[in-house]
Fold:
Amino acid sequence: MTATPSVETALPLVSERLHHAVARRLAMAIVGGELPAGHVFPAEVEHAERLGVSRSVLREAFRVLTSKGMVSSRPKAGTRVNARKSWNLLDPDVLAWQIQCGASDEFLRDLFELRLVVEPQAAEMAALRRDERQLTDMANALETMERCTLATDKGRAADIRFHELVLEATRNELMQALSTSISTAIASTTAIKSRVQDSPRDPMPEHHALYRCIAEGNAKQARKAMVALIDLAHSDTRVALRR
Amino acid sequence: MTATPSVETALPLVSERLHHAVARRLAMAIVGGELPAGHVFPAEVEHAERLGVSRSVLREAFRVLTSKGMVSSRPKAGTRVNARKSWNLLDPDVLAWQIQCGASDEFLRDLFELRLVVEPQAAEMAALRRDERQLTDMANALETMERCTLATDKGRAADIRFHELVLEATRNELMQALSTSISTAIASTTAIKSRVQDSPRDPMPEHHALYRCIAEGNAKQARKAMVALIDLAHSDTRVALRR
DNA sequence: AAGAAAAAATTATACGATATATGATCTGAG
DNA sequence: CTCAGATCATATATCGTATAATTTTTTCTT
Structure:
């Protein structure tokens, strides 16, 4: 009996491919404002040798950026940077590039606002549709958070996992699709908070309160608990940013 | 003086590229369940000549699918279909492919649920942050809807534009990023409704009510009005589906 | 002079052949 | 049983050339 290959999870590539590295490099220049909307890239041949890669690699990189709405290319007209408006900002890659490039205050505000729109409602739905397995998963995640604390990678991962589980419990695929984006948001803001030394308020009581509401099927309270949780994270982040 | 090139809007390509056609074809086979999660594609060379395209084109097509989380490819292991869980379901292309491939009842339910999560909150935010220009845009969209009715393409486009404007009025980029996805959802469900002959209830009163709430800055009422609007669309769609 | 049609220039797109690097699988030693 | 190394199929990367699409320019017609 061989170990069953995991079809469930798509493992990330261990080594990044060249075309992806090029795509990321171009994307960072775009989100960083170095290449503003409307910017036309040099002709393919010339651009490729300037970057020191083959044309095929450059083309594949552009293909990735095109599929995320960041650029568009047409014969004769060339390849140009699209207006920010048409980017797929919720795409996990775009979101990650954006944050790595230094998220602005407005962007962080938008992120928390999105969380306040999505997660409280998700908590409400989770309370109505939960099942045993997901509840134990949530409990385990909380236990790990408690044991490792948010100062450790494991603890932070458990925090993110907990929020993912709430979105999963909605049993709505589209809500679950938001989970990657929201996880990215949590990871980045947690990183900001951990930069300042003095530890922020312990968020475990709020997490446990939320869990209890979901476990008891108390939808309205679950919503309120999630709002409280996000507000706490928001204010902690703002405090951390001010230093 | 030449006409200023529009940087604002990224015009869609007039003629679809080969790689995009291939990507769409593969994507349809995937979302249609013909190629289930875990399916491994034949070796690149072989697969390319089977489809009658060059390997470059096939590679670029896979690059698009990879960037949307639908497949992942590694040397030696080949290219395989990812679990649905890791697809970027909110990506406009993925959503469109999904719908073109015949959306299931559960999927439509998820779509309306997403709208109920996002749009009422957006209406609330819009009421608080609106400006004159957006209000006149909304009024114009409603006027067009009234004049052309939902039976025409123009009328349907105006309906979608109205909902986009509400999301724009939130002044939150991430919420605006959801607008393409939601527009796709509206377009597809409106198409379903228009398939049955007897016209559904006229939704214009609800639209005007929503507009008034936003114009007056009445956030709580705007939320309620949006909920009413979506509920109406939902029940009309369900009725249409039952025939 | 004005407008339409044709030609040219420019660019992305498409193709196929070749070389490289990667990682899954097998093999053997410990 | 475990782990290090060899192997080999496969994706990855590069190159040269040919094609198609679209804007710009020119030419022709009116």
Observations:
- Chain B touches chain A through 51 residues (CB under 8 Å).
- Residues 17-19, 53-57, 74-77 of chain B lie near DNA strand C (CB under 10 Å from a C1').
